[in-house]
Amino acid sequence: MSLTRLTINEGTLWSSVKQGDRAAFEMLYKIFFKPLYNYGRKVCSNATLVEDSIHDLFLDLWRYRENLSATSSIKFYLFRALRRKIVKNGEKDEQASVFSFNQEDFFSKKTVSHEEDMIALESQNDQVRTLKRHLNNLSPRQYESLILRFYDDFSYSEIGSILNVNEQSARNLVQRGLEQLRNLSKIVFSLLFFVILFFR
Predict the structure, then answer these.
(1) Cys-Cys link to 177, which of 107, 132, 140, 142 (CB 3.0-4.6 A)?
(2) DSSP code per residue over the chain
(3) Domain spanning 10-92 has what CATH number?
(4) Topology classification of domain 106-198
């Protein structure tokens, strides 16, 4: 199910969770666990920290459900809450830099089944390696802002709120990240958005 166009009524689902509806809570978990995990793993290299933070988040949602604030976007609410939870849990574990982007999780790897595919695959791997080198030049915040904008389809205002910066700062992070990536060849630049849009 695409989270950019939910077929459920978010207000009804959120209200049902607040009222203690276990079926609604299970639906919430089922719908949002994977997107939350994908986001967490793209910005944090510690898989255990991400998983623990998601589980803590949902436990808190259920435990304090009656006090949950209203939201017009469950996805935005959960992403922002998860980021805060990762930071909090990371500090607890005395990790100096929680948000270091995880390129190995960002890129999907294909398994070659026929020998004739090897040349084409090697060419693609060269492009991916080139792209990874350029991604290393982005700051973690620039990288995360690009993920939130083009992968998770958040507005600049929402990105700013998730990253705890104002909207203009969020725009600047995205634009500076794009400017750095524009130094790539058109082929590699196109590959970036192919990966972002389709390898979910």
Answers:
(1) 142
(2) --STT-SS-HHHHHHHHHTT-HHHHHHHHHHHHHHHHHHHHHH-S-HHHHHHHHHHHHHHHHHTGGGPPP-S-HHHHHHHHHHHHHHHHHHHTT-S-S----HHHHS--PPP-SGGGHHHHHHHHHHHHHHHHHHTTS-HHHHHHHIIIIIS---HHHHHHHHTS-HHHHHHHHHHHHHHHTTS-HHHHHHHHHHHHH--
(3) 1.10.1740.10
(4) Arc Repressor Mutant, subunit A (1.10.10)
